[in-house]
Amino acid sequence: MSQIHYFTYTITKEEEGQPVRAVLYGGMELSTRKIRSLKKMPDGILLDGRPVTVREIVAAGQRLQIRMEDDAVSLPLPVGDAVPSRGQGGASENMRTVATHGEKERCLDDHLRILYEDADLLFVNKPSGMVCHPSKGHRGDSIYDQIRAYYGRTGQNAGVHLFGRLDKDTSGIVGIAKNKMTADRMQRQRQQGRFQKEYLALVWGQPSATSGTITIPMEEDRSAGYLRMRAGTGPAAKSAVTHYTVVTGRDGMDSCGENSLPAENRSWLLCENRPWTLCRVNIETGRTHQIRFHMAAIGCPLAGDALYGNLFANVEKERPGAKRDEAAQQGSARQGPAQQKDTPSGQPEHPQICRAALHAWKVTFLHPYEGREITVTAPLPEDMRAAI
């Protein structure tokens, strides 16, 4: 049996006397496409529990309800017991499961773990090596496929709208909206800067300053027969802004979610005389390979990054406290790569890092309907922990 999820909106005094259509466009901020799909759904629009058309006149205090499911959702056959229906008579209560470091996470399969879930949103912890969408060579093992199977097992009639997607090798938090309306609202938050994602990056060497901002424009380079990024100089160049802060001391590690480890196991996370630095990174723009490219551009490529690990080997290390001229940064980047290694830059010396060591560890946002602030975190994966 599938669940039916309604969103409830209370008519204000100012909206009294208006048709339902005006409220859907105005106070509820629905798109024309969504309203059109609601009109086709059985019981798609309810006013105080009874089906109405968009021409119905509303009164203050009435409860206008809309079905949240997408137009048509194709689900795999449920496996095992399905979740009972919530009924069609009114708004469903949000189902919430929050898992943090101190709580046992729920699994979608042997690899993908749920970090947060309610009736509209789902956040999972993606392992390195898993793709977000089905593609050639990845049929049935993507996050999209795993979520669809999970919906089938739990009887959820929900969509799979991924936002904040990650590259195959990047681990960490991926968000899924369960319907188009929620997806639109989360996308709006991203555009307005209210949806914040922070990464942990393990980089080789040490940045000259404990924090900084990198603003080198970027453009695609396919001259070698595959995609990589370079410093942008032509009309196709796009602006890119990356902020980083070096993680220092035990308090810094605790702030990155490692306080769940027993004290006796935390000391090795802070070992000195290592060839790398752990940085907290957030980006204002979402360019392809942005963090990997920008950190390499300042002479600190990500550990294990075969694509950019040697591209900026000729970038001179700046003196502590000195400010690198951005034009000089771009000039160094344009000089091109040094001899490319066949193995990741972190490999033969540190074989546990076999991918670009980047992890999306925290997201903060406002719930799209309740307005409360939510923070979701995912602990460091085992390969990055072992290297540190």
UniProtKB/TrEMBL annotation:
MF-aspect GO terms: catalytic activity, acting on RNA; pseudouridine synthase activity; RNA binding
Family label: Belongs to the pseudouridine synthase RluA family.
Record-linked CDD domains: PseudoU_synth_RluA_like (cd02869)
Alphabetical list of Gene3D superfamilies matching this protein: Pseudouridine synthase
Sequence segments annotated as region (Disordered): 83-102, 318-350
SUPFAM superfamilies associated with the record: Pseudouridine synthase (SSF55120)
Catalysis: reaction(s): a uridine in RNA = a pseudouridine in RNA
Basic and acidic residues composition-biased segments: 318-327
Compositionally skewed regions (Polar residues) per UniProt: 329-346
Domain named Pseudouridine synthase RsuA/RluA-like: residues: 120-297
InterPro entries reported in the protein's UniProt record: PsdUridine_synth_cat_dom_sf, PsdUridine_synth_RsuA/RluA, RluA_PseudoU_synthase
GO biological process: enzyme-directed rRNA pseudouridine synthesis
This protein's name: RNA pseudouridylate synthase
